[in-house]
Specification:
Layout (H helix, E strand, L loop, with lengths): L1 E3 L11 E12 L2 E14 L6 E3 L1 H9 L5 H20 L30
Antiparallel strand pairs: 1-2, 2-3, 3-4
């Protein structure tokens, strides 16, 4: 998963996270991040989350941009993410789950990346 906060869309609402489903490949010191089309906007103030781009995911499979084994793996990982961090103990009023995951808390202390040219 790739997490953005504030999300890089519209009003940059810091009460929301934008989560991309991605695949990461490495070769030596080089990491390649491939978007796997499905996204979700997760509000941290109790508003419902919003799934995005399932149509793009289906089109990528249809058009051969995403092979069926990759698509199956992506859906399994996506459901695992939703169940662990978004669905768990959220209904009806049990409070917020571990999102963003406490395991990434130290990442918030890193300096912002430099703009690319």
């Amino acid at each position: 998963m790739q997490l953005s906060n504030p999300p890089y869309w519209r009003d940059q609402d810091a009460r929301c996270w934008y989560v991309d489903l991605v695949a990461v490949a490495s070769a030596g010191d080089t990491f390649t991040v491939c978007d796997q089309y499905i996204d979700v906007i997760i509000a941290t103030d109790g508003r419902p989350y919003r799934m995005l781009d399932l149509d793009d995911f289906a089109e990528a499979i249809r058009d051969g941009a995403l092979a069926l084994p990759e698509a199956i793996d992506a859906l399994v990982r996506w459901q695992r993410f939703l169940d662990r961090y978004v669905h768990a103990d959220r209904f009806p009023d049990s409070g917020w789950t571990d999102f963003p995951p406490a395991a990434i808390e130290a990442l918030a202390l890193l300096p912002a990346p430099l703009p690319t040219r």
